[in-house]
Each structure stands twice: as structure tokens, then as C-alpha cells.
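can u pls check wat happens w/ heme C
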Amino acid sequence: MKPARILILFSLACGMAGLLACGTIYFLINKKHTWIPEKLVELARQPDLLENPTAKRCGECHEAIFKAWEKSRHARAWISETYIKDSENRSKEKCLPCHIPRAVKAGSKPEPRLTQRDEGVFCIPCHMADGKMNGPYALYSPPHPTRQNDAYRKAVFCGSCHEKTYKEWQAAGHESTCQKCHMPRAEGRLVQNPVLKYFHAPKEVADHGFPHGAVGAGEIGLSVDIKPDRVRVVLLNDTVPHHVPTADNGDPRLYLTVEQFDTAGEKLDRVREILAPQQETALMYKKEVAFTYPVERGARRVSVRLEYKPAWSTEKTEVHNKSFTVDF
Ligand code: HEC
Ligand code: HEC
Ligand code: HEC
Ligand code: HEC
Ligand code: HEC
């Protein structure tokens, strides 16, 4: 045989062997990892992962999840300006457990931690327990041990810190978990590491940006009824199975503003209601709340506006803005 031909056959054989080896590794990792010898497993371990690394370190493999978390409010729990102000420059001891937790155990308030405080509520407290990364899947990860735990897909996990919201949710008796709405899942990969990603089958990945979206007209119903002598405004939280807004300590608010104008467009009257957990006026699930105001003499137009302000900002977003003609 010519040397060139030998080379081609040799490369082909190597390629086949390589593919077979990769296929075997893929199969073992995803289906039969208990067959992998313990000694081999130890070689692949990266022990620093179990010694409280930063979220960024986890992000070397879990890049997509890291990027989503980084933008979430959880990442700001300790550095948030409103938190710093309300906790009197972080001097209040009782504020620490949920804003810088050490380890989350579903259903009980965490202990505070002493290190890496700037990272707030990050990967380690939510996932590491007993020297393993706990999560929703029964899977095999060479770099660190993992353990499947059903609590990750249950509302009680979030209830460890979102105590009040969790109680409201229980009272609402809705079938959706917090994760369903605030960590929606989509098909993807748990890791983006250039080598590892080819060895792990795609799975559903939960959105670690913990979105809650702006409150929209779809969430809060608004109806207005005008009679010759009065305006009646009814608000209804028809879809969110906890109070709107909801909070343990922050001060998110809804503002309802009702204004009356005469034919010339002059303002005759303006009332503003605050719907907020701190004032115990937040909208309960499926419970109508009505406000009635007298119609001013000469009123020709009534405008009704509902705005939302999250706890960590002074900016408001519009939920409803309606205008009515008074023509009796
Ligand atoms: C060197 C790469 C690498 C690093 C760094 C890494 N992981 Fe992983 N992790 C993996 C792989 C691989 C999987 C399995 C992925 C799969 O099977 O789809 C995994 C799975 C997981 C799971 C799922 C567990 C389950 O049972 O559902 C969690 C949770 C997790 N890692 C958390 C972390 C945390 C927290 C850190 C940082 C301390 C971290 N990982 C750092 C590679 C890594
Ligand atoms: C260790 C305590 C802790 C756990 C567990 C926890 N959270 Fe949070 N969460 C917080 C804190 C603290 C904040 C507020 C951070 C800030 O803005 O200062 C927060 C904020 C949020 C926000 C944003 C609220 C806003 O006003 O924008 C959402 C949504 C949220 N969490 C959902 C969840 C869900 C869903 C779970 C369960 C999967 C969960 N959280 C588990 C402590 C926790
Ligand atoms: C507030 C707690 C919390 C924080 C902070 C958090 N996670 Fe998670 N994580 C969860 C929960 C709850 C699930 C399960 C969600 C589901 O499947 O419904 C999960 C799931 C996962 C999974 C399995 C795949 C999936 O999406 O279901 C991985 C991997 C993971 N997290 C890694 C990380 C990494 C890396 C970080 C930091 C960058 C992090 N998590 C931060 C609570 C948290
Ligand atoms: C059916 C979907 C759904 C479920 C289930 C759900 N939420 Fe919400 N949640 C929303 C919507 C929509 C908003 C936006 C309205 C708002 O900001 O109040 C929201 C807002 C929030 C906020 C922002 C605070 C605020 O009101 O400004 C937090 C925190 C929160 N939810 C936590 C939770 C927790 C914890 C659970 C589980 C106990 C949960 N949610 C269950 C849909 C849901
Ligand atoms: C039991 C857990 C827990 C404790 C303890 C706790 N918080 Fe929070 N905090 C939360 C959760 C969960 C949120 C996010 C949703 C909400 O507002 O309930 C939050 C949100 C906030 C917010 C609004 C978000 C922001 O960054 O502006 C502020 C401000 C705040 N907390 C201040 C405090 C202060 C001050 C204390 C101590 C007096 C404290 N918290 C104690 C769980 C807790």
C-alpha cells in the first residue's frame, strides 16, 4: 500500500475510535453514570467548587444561568440602595438572613453568612448542601457531585424567604407554583462550557432572571361606572395568586388616580389611592375592591389611571389609563 493510503485509513480508524469513545462517554454520563469507576470520577472533580466559590466561577460552565441571575433582583439583595437605606446602612441584624443567606433549606428561614455578601442571594446558598449541588434533576456532573431534590420545583422553597407571599399564595389555593411564573422553563443546556456541552443531553432550563414583569392590564382588571351623582371604580386582581403588590419588607405600590375636569379642561378634583402591602391595601386574589367618589358640579370628563411602582425604584409604569365623558 502507498503511504498516503495508509495515512488515510489510519485517520479513518482513529476517527471511528474517537467517535465510539465519545459516544460511550455521552451514553455513560447521561444514562448509566453509576457504571463510571469512582477513581475516574475523582479525576474529573474540581474541588474548589465546593468551597464557596463566586457565582462567576459557576458561570464558567453555567454561563446562561449565570447571566440571567446577574440581572435578577436576587443579585442585588445586599447592594440595593433601597435595602441599604431601610436597613440603616445594613446595621439591622434581623435583615440579614434572607438578603445574605448561608444555605436555603426549603421551608425554614436561612441563617446569615459572613462572606461574599455583595453577591446577595446567589448560587451557593440556593444549591449547595452536604457537599453536593442540589437541583431538580437526577443527573451526573463530573466537575461536582449533584443530588436530586423535589423541593426545587415547589413553592415552599421560595417560601423560605418570601414568607408573606408564600402564605398569600397558599390562601389563594392556585395550582401554579412560584417557579411556573417566576422561573419559566425552556428547552436548553445547563452548561455552555465548550467541551462539556456536547456530553450532556439538553434539558429544561429555568429562567434565573426571576422575572415578574411589569404589572399589566391583563393582570389587574379595572372597571368604571359613572352615574349622575357618583363615579365607581372597581379593581380586581383576577390572575395573580398572591397580593398585588406583594412584599415582606419592601414597599411596592399601585397608585389609583381619579381626576375630574370641566368642559374647559380645568381640573375640578383629584383623588389618589395607594394600594400597598405596607398599608395593608394590596389587592387580594379574586377579591374586588371598589372606590366611590361624588361627581363634581360641572364635571364633563373623568380620567382614571392605575400605575405600578416596584419596591426598588421610584419609577412608575402605567397599568391602565382611561378617560370617560360625563353626559347626563
Ligand atoms: C466545570 C464545569 C462546571 C462548573 C464550574 C460548575 N458546574 Fe454545575 N454542573 C456541571 C455539569 C456538567 C452539570 C450537569 C449538566 C447536565 O447533565 O446537563 C452540572 C449540574 C449542576 C446542577 C444540577 C443539579 C441537579 O441535580 O439538578 C446544579 C444545581 C449545579 N450544577 C450547580 C452549580 C453551582 C452552584 C456551581 C458553582 C459553585 C457549579 N454548578 C459549577 C458543570 C459545572
Ligand atoms: C434566600 C432567600 C430567598 C429565596 C430562597 C428566594 N428569594 Fe426571591 N428574593 C429574595 C430577596 C431578598 C429579594 C429582594 C432582592 C432585592 O431587590 O433587594 C428577592 C426578590 C425576588 C423577586 C423580585 C421581586 C421584585 O420586587 O422585583 C422575585 C420575582 C423573586 N424573588 C422570586 C423568587 C422565587 C420564584 C423563588 C423560589 C424559586 C425565590 N425568589 C427564592 C430572597 C429569596
Ligand atoms: C433563589 C434561589 C436560586 C438561586 C440564587 C440560583 N438558583 Fe439555580 N435553581 C433554583 C431553583 C428553584 C431551580 C429549579 C427550577 C425549576 O426547575 O423549576 C434551579 C435550577 C438550577 C439548575 C438546574 C437546571 C434548571 O434550570 O432547572 C442549575 C444548573 C442551576 N439552578 C444553577 C444555578 C447557578 C449556577 C446559579 C448562580 C449563577 C443559580 N442556580 C442560582 C434556585 C436558585
Ligand atoms: C400565576 C402566576 C404567578 C404565581 C403562581 C406566582 N406569581 Fe408572583 N407575580 C406574578 C405576577 C404577574 C406579578 C406581577 C404583579 C406584581 O408585581 O405584583 C408577580 C409579582 C411578584 C413579586 C414582585 C413584587 C411586587 O408585587 O411588586 C414577587 C416577589 C413575587 N411575585 C413572588 C412570588 C412567589 C414567592 C410566589 C409563590 C409563593 C409567586 N410569586 C407565585 C405571577 C405569579
Ligand atoms: C424572611 C426573609 C426576609 C427578611 C428577614 C428581610 N427581608 Fe427584605 N426582602 C425579602 C424578600 C423575599 C424580598 C423581595 C420581595 C418582597 O419585597 O417581599 C425583600 C425585599 C426587600 C426590599 C425591596 C427590594 C429592594 O432592594 O429595595 C427592601 C427595601 C427590603 N427587603 C428591606 C429589608 C429590611 C430593612 C429588612 C430588615 C428589617 C429585611 N428586608 C428583612 C425577604 C426578607
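Residues 155, 158-159, 162, 165-166, 169, 174, 176, 178, 180-182, 212-213, 215, 219, 240-242, 244-247, 252, 310 surround heme C (ligand 4) (CB under 6 Å).
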